[in-house]
Amino acid sequence: MPSLPHGSPAPVPQPGRPRRTARAAAVLAAGALLAAAVGCGSLKPPDPAPTDTTRVADGNVPGIDARSAGAGLGGAGFTVRASVPDIPNAAPLADHLAGVVRQEAADFRAAVDSATRLEVDWELTAAGRGLVGVRLVRTEHDHRGVHDSYATYWYDTATGRTAYSTELLAGDAELRRLDRLVAAALGKGPGDPGALHPGFRLYDSLAFNHDGDLVVEFDAGRVAPLERGRVAAVVAAEDARPLLSDLGRRARAASALAPHAFEIAEPPARDAASEVPPAPGSRPPAQDHDCGATVTCVALTFDDGPDKRTPEVLDLLAEYGAKATFFMPGHSIRNEPATVGRAFAEGHQLGNHGDTHETFAGGDFDRLDAELTAVDALIRRETGTEVDVMRPPFGLTDPTVAEVAREHGQAQVIWDTDTEDWTGRDTEQIVANTIARTPPNGLVLLHDTEDATVEALPEILEYFTAQGYALVTVADLLEGTEPGEVYYSADPAANAVCAQLAGCP
Q: Which of the following is catalytic: 96, 304, 447, 448?
C-alpha cells in the first residue's frame, strides 16, 4: 500500500541555479554547528524523507550550466526569471524545457489577471542509464501570494526526446491504478482524494526516492489548501513496479545509481526519435460511433460551468456511459478548476466559452482574442491540452468572431435544440423540451449551472438510452470540424438553413 502523503512548504529558489531546498540548507547549518562541537568525523546527515526525490549534484555533470529562459517573456507589470539546464550534447533538452517555460509564462499571464512574476528553477533528479531527469519548479506571484508548482521531465540521450512524467507509466489503465493508490494515501494525510483524477496535468511530476518508491508530488493548491504548499504521496516500490513503462523502469534504475560523474558522449542522432503513443492521461479514448450512418447519436452540451453541481452531472453521465461537451467561461474555471480536469480525464470534450461571457458579436478582434486566449490558457493549465471548439456566448456570431475562432484553431459550435433551461423552466418542462425538440443526431443546449437541469438530467439520459441513442461529444457527432466555421447541426442541409437564419427554426 502507498505510504502517507506529506505536506511541506515549497523551498525558495536560488536565482539562476538549481534549487537548494530549505531542508538541505537546514541540514548544512546544523552540520556546521555539530562539526564545530564534536569534529567532522562524527557528522552524519539525516536520511532523506520518503517524499524527497533523488537528486544529482550539478558538480557530477561536467560542463553543465544554467541557460536563461526568461528573456522577452515579461512586460506590463509582469516579470520572468527562469533558467533551464544546459548539458553538453543535450541541446534538445534545453530547447524543449525553454519551450515549456515560454508556454507556462504565457499561460500564467493570460489566465491570471493579477500575475506579477514567474520564476522557474530546476534540479536534476537522475542522470544515468541514458536518461536525465529534470525537475522544474515554477514559483508564481499573484493575488494569492507566492506559491510553487512542479513538473518533472525525462530526457533520452540517445533519441533526444524529452518525455512527460506520465510516460513513466505503461498506459492509461496504469495511470488510473496510480490515481487510486494515491487517493488511498491522501485519505490518510493532508490532501483531498476528491481533488484527484487520472489526468495528464495533475500527474506532471513523477520521480523516485532513495528506496525506489514512486514519488508523486502536487502543486500548491491542487489537492490541499494553497497555504499547505507542496503535497506529495509515496507509492511503495512493489506497488509501483507493475505500473511502469520501459522508460519508467529505466528512470527508476537511473535514480538508484550512486553518485558518479555523468557525461553525454555525443549529440543524439537526427533520425533517432520515432513516433510514440500519446502520454497517459493526455488524450481521452477516441470515440467513433459513425453517427448518422449506423448509429443515431445525441450530443448534450453544457454551458457556463463548471459549477458546484457539475460533479453530479459527471456522476450521472458516467452512470449511463454517456459523453458530453462542456463550454466553459473563464470565471467558472477559476472557481472550480479541479472539475475541469476531472471532466477531461473522464473523456468529455471541453470547449471555450469566452473569459467574461459577454456577447462576442460586435466585438473587435483584440477583445475577442483576449477572451479566447484567457480560457485557452486556463484549460491548458488544468489539462495540459488544447481545445478545438468554442461557443460564442448566447450563440451570437459574426465575421470577426469567425476570424478570431479561426486564429485559435477552433470551430464555432452552436446548437439545433434549445431546451430553454436558462429561462427558469422547471424540471418537467426541461425534460419535455429536450424530448420534443431534439432531432436524431441533435445538438442540445443545456446548462450545468441550473439546478432544474441537473434534476432533469436522469430522465433525459434514461429517455435517450431507452431509444438506443448514443450520447456523444460534439467531436464524435460532427466527425471533423474546420476552425472558424459555424456548426448548428450535424445535418449539412439543416446547418445551412440555421446559418442563414442565424439560428435554427
A: 447
Share of the chain above pLDDT 70, in %: 90
CA distance 372 to 407: 10
| Upstream peptide bond of 306 is cis (omega within 30 degrees of 0) | yes
> In Å, what is the CA distance from 32 to each residue of 28, 29, 37, 42?
6, 5, 9, 11
Going by C-alpha positions, the residue among 13, 122, 125, 14 that lies closest to residue 60 is 125
Is the distance from CB of 54 to CB of 62 less than 8 angstroms?
A: no
Banded model confidence at residue 44, pLDDT cuts 50, 70, 90 = low
The pLDDT confidence band at residue 6, using thresholds 50, 70 and 90, is very low
Question: Taking the alpha carbons of 277, 382, 197, 226 in that order, is the dihedral positive or negative?
Answer: positive
Mean pLDDT to the nearest integer, 184-206:
93
Q: In what order do the strands lie in the sheet with 145-156?
A: 65-68, 79-86, 117-128, 131-142, 145-156, 161-163
> Could you say which of 303, 304, 388, 416 is catalytic?
303
Strand pairing report for 389-390 and 442-447: unpaired
Torsion of CA 222, 214, 82, 159, to 10 degrees: -130
| 346, 347, 372 from 326: Cα distances, Å | 12, 11, 15
pTM: 0.90
Respond yes or no: is residue 303 known to be catalytic.
Answer: yes
Q: Is 246 a catalytic residue?
A: no
Sign (positive or negative) of CA dihedral 387, 389, 391, 392? positive
